[in-house]
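Meet the record:
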Amino acid sequence: MHRDTPLSRILMVSAIFVGIATAYTVSGNQIFDPNGKLVILRGLDRPSLEWSCTGQQMSLADYALMKSWGANIIRLSLSQCCLLAGLNGYSASYASVIDQQVTWIKSLGMGVILDLHWSNQGSASTTCGQQPMADTYSIQFWTQVATKYKNDPWIAFELYNEPYLTDWNIWKNGGSYQGYTVAGMQQLYNTVRATGANNAVIVGGINYAYDLSGVANYPIQGTNIIYNTHPYNYGGKQPNEWQASFGYLLPTHAVIATEFGDTTSCDTTYYANFLNFTQTHHMSWTGWGWWVSGCSFPSLISDWKGTPSASGVLVKAALLKGSGVAGTPSTTTAAASTSQTTLLTALLILFLTYLI
């Protein structure tokens, strides 16, 4: 029998430290980036890939402008119709278009959220759009996406953009709803994990993702889960209702708002209130949206030079204020972090191993 020598142990421990890739990791209510650094995710939403399989106005320069605002993560809105062969709207080049965006974003030192934004109620002939919840094709979508990006620790998966069904059991476990078969959040989560992907998973509530009150009774079983809310200036979504809807989770769970704002006017009061809330509670968010349109969109920019709109002024200021910037993705594996903490820990273990 081979006798384990101190040198072989040292090599084994070294391989552990160098070879294991970590993803965005959730521990309690905290998020750690792939370099093991505590981080509050603060970024911007980049739409158009949900309605255009080629994307619109997307470029490295555009992402550089987002970086200049202080973003540490970018959320990309996607469509299952563009990705999956056989669906109405399929594009063979869509996967490559997504790859290009991911490459550009990571080259600027930002992480990526891939968001399943549009679906088709499980009907291959139906044009994709915003639906009450994911469907059976959404399971295929996440099988394909998670398989492709499971070794990229700088990517998080947002399982479904804005569920607006009202049944918490169907939201979690799936079932029949409005004439089609819903894929529940637990099913989508299990689909991702079945590929071997340990990437952080983002789970939005009901009422267009805003309401997380039912999570207490219908929690998603698993790890690396970030719950997601979308506060907009409508009835039932006002500041005095935030605590009961999602704030109660903040002491114990990681929570992000991957959208927020006001589509009813150009007034910025709702933005100011929400940004103050997130700063007080050290809550993650991404701002909707980096798109030139108007207040009803709502748009954070007024032109493609990155000039902020009235709401964009507040969002940009909040980003630049800082919240814990993630480490920089690189062409080498993020797991081989050279942070002082990791190096010192590795050296200590190697030394102790040698003495044994």
About this structure: Residues 1-19, 324-328, 330-347 have pLDDT under 50 and may be disordered. DSSP finds eleven helices and 13 strands in the chain.
